[in-house]
């Protein structure tokens, strides 16, 4: 993705309307939809701006709501901080919710970032056809906008179930507060947008690195179909991606993920969020949000490799659970690539050794400033999607072919699953370890209807043995931990105050 992203004021443009009345005078020195969207370069800049919210989303919030809100990761409680914070509430399945809304800040920010993408893509899609420029470029820009809008609504519908469906720019307070669309209505819009994107976008070989491709759109659409249990439709799309879109597994699992300045958008990458180390403002800092704490400079230096290593003292988030660690089979190469260990001399725990997410701990130059991209869709997941789609159509032997490609790369023997039920469980378990820490686990639990079964048992283990889950001696989860086992989050309370429809 190019780094000349449009500034934050693009959202204001996206929310500003204009009328066709020739008596309306448009100030030529002020930015508006009438003065900005007039040439190809404007739309290129606007599409760049539509990607921008993804950077904050995946750096700060998606992993809280979609990974730590599962049995894959937990938080390391620092009792010196006192009150439980909103992130801990998510990890504890104790998000305070009443009348379908919640004040949790993680929910609010993720919701708003998705609607920033929607607002920006709506403005693009409602104005681009009125401007004359090369069809190939126009189609590619439209395809990216459709993909990003589909992506945002897919995230929203999986998180909340029902949200307002905005498809045109908001021009005033009257059309800002729309009724909640149903889950089926939102699914239908995601399908429509992703389908259109798959037709308009370039494939990976021709597309500029970092931008959405036709393969990414087809993978998103297949993900939707799998969520809806439309197995045959998913199979057809995935076969197209596997056969025609030029992706392949990286031979080494470690190289499936970006380094801070290299290996980005590699052969396995279907879509990833772009970051750039440095002072331009495009950097991330995920590993610093995930690293166990309090950690000294000497303890963090081998993990980050920076020249100015600094200690951190904070609540520790996204710590791999003992449950996930135990899920790796003996000899699985992915385990040591994905999970490392660090001993914290200042920890209040008796066992001062913690696991951490090693796959995102890439050497970089400066403290708290990283540049590795975040993987959203990888070819390994395409293969696992295909295995699932085939198995659910009773094509279990065919499903094994795709599952075993992933297992072989991990250094494991072929699956022994030989029935549909056994294969279903094998694929479910394989997704857990292959895609660990990539924000997949929560959605896997919800779409398979296993939240209460799996999280109920996980919560019982945490409460029975809190020291195994990174609590200092004597500290325990709050009384309301693991009491909110709903498939969807409540809608943001702040937003509910602005609409009568929540």
UniProtKB/TrEMBL annotation:
UniProt main location, coarse: membrane
UniProt subcellular location: Cell outer membrane
Protein name, per record: RagB/SusD family nutrient uptake outer membrane protein
Example of a GO cellular component annotation carried by this entry: cell outer membrane
Keyword vocabulary terms for this entry: Cell outer membrane, Membrane, Signal
Protein family (similarity comment): Belongs to the SusD family.
Domain RagB/SusD, chain residue ranges per copy: 332-480
Pfam families: SusD-like_3 (PF14322), SusD_RagB (PF07980)
SusD-like N-terminal domain boundaries: 21-225
């Amino acid at each position: 993705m190019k780094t000349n992203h449009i500034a934050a004021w693009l959202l204001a443009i996206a929310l500003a309307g204009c009328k066709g009345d020739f008596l309306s005078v448009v100030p030529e020195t002020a930015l508006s939809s009438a003065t900005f969207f007039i040439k190809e370069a404007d739309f290129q800049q606007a599409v760049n701006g539509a990607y921008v919210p993804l950077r904050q989303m995946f750096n700060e919030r998606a992993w809280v709501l979609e990974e730590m809100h599962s049995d894959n990761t937990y938080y390391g409680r620092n009792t010196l901080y006192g009150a439980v914070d909103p992130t801990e509430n998510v990890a504890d399945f104790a998000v305070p919710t009443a009348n379908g809304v919640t004040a949790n800040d993680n929910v609010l920010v993720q919701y708003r970032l998705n609607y920033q993408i929607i607002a920006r893509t709506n403005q693009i899609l409602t104005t681009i056809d009125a401007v004359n420029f090369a069809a190939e470029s126009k189609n590619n820009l439209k395809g990216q906008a459709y993909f990003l809008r589909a992506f945002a609504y897919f995230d929203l519908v999986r998180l909340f179930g029902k949200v307002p469906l905005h498809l045109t720019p908001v021009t005033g307070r009257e059309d800002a507060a729309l009724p909640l669309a149903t889950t089926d209505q939102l699914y239908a819009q995601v399908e429509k947008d992703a389908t259109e994107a798959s037709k308009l976008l370039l494939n990976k070989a021709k597309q500029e690195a970092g931008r959405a491709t036709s393969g990414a759109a087809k993978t998103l659409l297949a993900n939707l179909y799998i969520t809806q249990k439309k197995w045959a439709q998913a199979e057809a799309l995935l076969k197209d991606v596997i056969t025609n879109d030029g992706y392949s597994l990286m031979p080494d699992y470690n190289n499936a993920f970006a380094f801070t300045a290299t290996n980005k958008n590699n052969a396995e990458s279907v879509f990833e969020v772009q970051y750039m180390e440095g002072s331009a403002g495009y950097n991330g800092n995920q590993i610093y949000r995930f690293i166990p704490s309090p950690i000294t400079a000497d303890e963090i230096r081998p993990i980050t490799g920076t020249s100015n290593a600094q200690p951190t003292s904070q609540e520790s988030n996204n710590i791999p659970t003992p449950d996930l660690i135990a899920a790796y089979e003996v000899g699985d190469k992915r385990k040591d690539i994905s999970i490392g260990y660090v001993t914290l001399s200042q920890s209040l725990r008796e066992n001062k050794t913690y696991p951490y997410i090693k796959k995102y701990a890439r050497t970089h130059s400066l403290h708290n400033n990283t540049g590795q991209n975040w993987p959203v869709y990888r070819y390994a997941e395409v293969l696992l999607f295909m295995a699932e789609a085939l198995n659910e159509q009773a094509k279990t032997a065919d499903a094994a072919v795709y599952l075993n490609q992933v297992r072989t790369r991990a250094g494991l023997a072929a699956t022994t699953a030989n029935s549909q039920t056994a294969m279903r469980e094998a694929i479910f378990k394989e997704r857990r370890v292959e895609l660990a820490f990539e924000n997949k686990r929560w959605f896997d639990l919800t779409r398979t209807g296993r939240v209460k079964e799996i999280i109920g048992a996980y919560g019982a283990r945490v409460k029975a043995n809190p020291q195994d889950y990174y609590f200092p001696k004597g500290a325990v989860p709050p009384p309301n931990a693991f009491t909110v086992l709903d498939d969807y989050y409540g809608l943001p309370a702040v937003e509910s105050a602005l609409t009568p429809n929540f």
